[in-house]
Target: Aspartokinase
Amino acid sequence: MTIVVQKYGGTSLSTTKRIKEVTERILEEKRKGNQVVVVVSAMGSSTDSLVEMSKDVSSHPDPREMDMLLSTGEQVTSSLVALALRDQGADALSLTGEQAGIHTEETFGDASISFIDTPKIKVHLDENKIVVVAGFQGVSEKGEICTLGRGGSDTTAASLAAELHADRCEIFTDVEGVFTADPRVVKEAKKIPELTYKQMQDLADMGAGVVHPRAVLYAYRNNVPLFVRSSFDQQEGTRIDHFREQTNVTGIAVEKDLTCVTIIGKEKTNLSEEASAMIKIIEAAGIAIRRALIIEDRYSFSFIIQSKELKQTYSLLQGRPWISKVSYENRAAVSIVFSHERLANVSNRLGRILMTKRDRADIIFHSPRVWRIIVPEYELALTAQLLHDAFIEKPNLSISL
Amino acid sequence: MTIVVQKYGGTSLSTTKRIKEVTERILEEKRKGNQVVVVVSAMGSSTDSLVEMSKDVSSHPDPREMDMLLSTGEQVTSSLVALALRDQGADALSLTGEQAGIHTEETFGDASISFIDTPKIKVHLDENKIVVVAGFQGVSEKGEICTLGRGGSDTTAASLAAELHADRCEIFTDVEGVFTADPRVVKEAKKIPELTYKQMQDLADMGAGVVHPRAVLYAYRNNVPLFVRSSFDQQEGTRIDHFREQTNVTGIAVEKDLTCVTIIGKEKTNLSEEASAMIKIIEAAGIAIRRALIIEDRYSFSFIIQSKELKQTYSLLQGRPWISKVSYENRAAVSIVFSHERLANVSNRLGRILMTKRDRADIIFHSPRVWRIIVPEYELALTAQLLHDAFIEKPNLSISL
Model:
């Protein structure tokens, strides 16, 4: 029998009214005669409320306790969705990550799935039940609750789809699919009907938040077609599968809420050793350097992090005797994702496009398929618009540059 | 080493500010050199919010799903308390019911504890950690989350205290201890410094909500001294232990929010068979008949339930061909709890006390130690006051009646 995995995000489940609407869509799938596994995120902003409470009582929240706390959000939604389905006469039940057989490594806050004990779900599917799984979580060998990090419900869905040999995995969200750029930033952005896993992963890695990169990887490795669709309408959405790549440019991805940290040394001495040691310390604390270490000169250096990790980064920089000054600036990243490897002359072309409107751009070679432009936050929309116009709206023009 | 179990209720943990205050008291106990197990309820009204959401999506919420939903409330508090303790430098961790080794029968919504796998907690206590257990919940043999019913955190605390051979079990609440009557109803009510388990159980059974009757039973069976204390001040509270009973009357217990359901038959036929069949159906649905089946005459009968179960009761009465009319009236119960068995002439004495102010009272013999008076809700305070005055304030006078 065909198994379909559907994942619903927080905005699709923000209120009990929305939960009832989602129920309709789940029942539609069930009525087609398929076995249905539903993976849910926490309701709307409930995770943020829990995080707020933890900050009230703790200045450095312990990761194990945070996982105990945050995993409740998905458990609440899973039981409410199961209740709503049962209210419509369907046989449904909710499962925690542990009950769904999702086993993880014991890395609190950012665990990866080690294996899935699929019979734990199959026994319910074979009884013709709709299984609603609390996303974003699993259990370690020692019985500890571990979360998979932000966006982790996508990973739960994709890996369940892979292990259950599902026909497809549908990621329901609040947008109609994957776009050539974030439609809130670039008005002319168009929905992309088909993408390869690689294209999707590049976009997701560069900040296109519609689906988590880890989920794309699971789907790719296990040949599960992935659909990104809106839970608010009946449109087709974007299919992610093993296609032959057709287009030259996949799309433009934006990433907001970055901070550029600049460190100036005390004396005119070469900081390159201190810089690389400092980066190692920061990364060891679990903070991701968002792929840009900009050595301005030998006496200062800069790197980019997510703004939410600024406080922790700052505490790591405290008390280093060689630091004279630390400064911060809001930044955003606009990335152009090519569908094939393009190395020759991209930097120059990008520079020429951007120079028409701007004085300076930090253009970073990220991979043979991805170039990344770091701009001040207020220039995000302008930059995204320029690149979208040049590479998506008028692709022939840009190629000939 | 001495083990102390402390239980904190919802009002003691209603805000993150209150959680931090409670932390201080836990640390005080730890500083005495004791091993400390903390059992927590859900924060303030969070359980009610979860129940509200379940009603939004379901007209007849499934008990299994309700347990999945409601058990999250205690899990949230347990992690927040552990976070607050760790913030103060203490080594603390939270445990779900399952992680604490609390195994239950699989009766959703009202499970009883079948056994406690104590090494699961002891391993942490032996590492000198403060263990914070999510109350009100356990896990069935099949891995299903089961709640122990309202007030269930008391049961968690008392049974953990029993199984861990704790020195004592402290129930922290928002009142200073057990009173001769509910001080919100009877102004003159006095705190009782010492009670026997039996006295406490009679009071709790009759609605004194300060501690759950099941918890008293666990403590009694395992000889664990139980303390009821306020988390808002440093007073001694009430000690419940194996005392020799000193007083004649333990106290007055009140129970609000009751409904008297009266059923009138269609014809002038004897309803006694239908009445007992109907009571069986209602009890089989998990609704407790609050110990009063009043056969008014042979053509009608009445019984008393908790008002919150009225809706479900009503649906069970629907479509019975022999029923002509069903009516409902708000009721409350005032119970007088004797410290010894007293049978002779109590009904008459009670009647004479009550008749001074009232026209009618339904006086029910509940047990050789408990008499129960059913009154309209608006007469609750007057009745409690009359009995308190007669039996507690002027006991010699009442005995001589």
User: Anything to note?
Assistant: The radius of gyration of chain A is 23 Å. Residues 252-400 of chain A form a domain with the VC0802-like fold (CATH 3.30.2130.10).
